[in-house]
Write a structure and sequence with these properties.
Length: 499
Amino acid sequence: MTHTATLTAAGLTPAEITGGTLAVHSPIDGALVAHVHETNPADMPAIIARSVSAFKAWRTVPAPRRGELVRLLGEELRAAKAELGALVTLEAGKITSEGLGEVQEMIDICDFAVGLSRQIYGLTIASERPGHRMMETWHPMGPCGVISAFNFPVAVWSWNAALALVCGDPVIWKPSEKTPLTAIASMKIMDRALARFGDAPEGLVQLVIGGPAIGEALVASKDVPILSATGSTRMGSIVGPKVAARWGRPILELGGNNAMIVAPSADLDMAVRAIVFSAVGTAGQRCTSLRRLIAHHSIRADLVAKLAKAYASLPIGDPRRATTLIGPLVDHGARDRMLAQLEKARAEGGTVHGGATVTEGVPQGGAYIAPALVEMPTQTDTVREETFAPILYVLGYDTLDEAIALQNDVPQGLSSCIFTLNLREAETFLSAAGSDCGIANVNIGPSGAEIGGAFGGEKETGGGRESGSDAWKGYMRRQTNTINYSAQLPLAQGVKFDF
Ligand code: NAD
């Protein structure tokens, strides 16, 4: 299918993709596919004001009724899955299966949120005073700003929007300036759900297009109490303090530097499969991509040999081709950064396998590169940085304590895993003295999370949680209620105040 046909099939009109100031290139071949209209920063106050008005109406709509809107969104996404998935491939360069998987993730979170809309529970709490009852009530919080990254151009919005909407919060979405087309197409799908829903307030779900300056308007506004920002640690270090300084609630989902420990007892064939998917899937451009392999010295050489063999067989090329497993990097800048990091790793004593630019058998104009395996003598500064590309650093260890110390000795704390058949090792890894990450797995890789769990990480990953479990609480305000049904007015802690 041509790029134009993919855009048309996803419902984008000529007016939406021409005449604007934001140029959009496809990572597949670098082709210029659209000029999208950017939001005027001067319009941001009115956009935020519309969201505030929508909040006043939406917060009183019963949560199960709010869930109906998300149910309809899920239905519309199911109907549009193939076309939106293909657009994700066109705009973000993901292979077809991963583009479709991203839309499936949107559908999954809608299903989750519909159920949640009937399960927004608070606690009842034992009161120390006779004739009193205590409880917690969860209330809508207000407009939720969503700033998203290029590598999950639509799923991250849906994680936030599906929860925020059932929680009673309007949403203003600023997607990555690299991926506005999938955002416009998703918004059109949302508009169809809104039309079928019927009586949602105007401005309940809005999309703004542009770079950091547009995001900054959401970051700075006191009328946007929740600001969910997904992207680099650099971005989070700017956005987080600004939101905190105005007493807003930041939900930060930032960079990762995810590791796998492979113990002597590990099922190596399974480990190899998990390593390859998590290190080279999405061309190493997932926040949860495997970036560090910490292998026991007794199996390290064997594992590296197996991996080198597997890496040599991976089809690299056009992400639309059914057999391709590694598509392009998002742009040439990303490839340059990968090559520069490999140079730095070499200078620090690393031995690099792979990592060459690929020009044969791939669409011209895209940034295609073979994934790299880099054997490192120690965990150097370069290894401690997140490079958003398929580089896997290999380190060795003798004792599990040493392996866990290496795993934790990076600034980021997103995802982690261990391959072992030894129960003591697995449980130690998951214990308080084990992995310091928000996600810790046993005998599966660090990437490819399901929506049912809370997603997010510690340290420079930002501490935010999205998606499943009780992440919804981040989109609501908790109110503690004490109800006195007695004829007395006793004070807590036995305090006397008689007059
Ligand atoms: P990026 O930080 O360059 O941009 C992310 C978003 O932030 C974009 O929409 C951008 O316009 C916006 N932004 C940048 N500076 C801003 C500012 N000062 N004020 C307001 N908005 C600003 O990230 P990217 O290159 O698009 O994505 C890759 C990064 O995202 C990686 O570090 C990856 O690990 C991370 N990521 C994290 C998660 C997670 O859930 N933890 C998920 C996906 C991606």
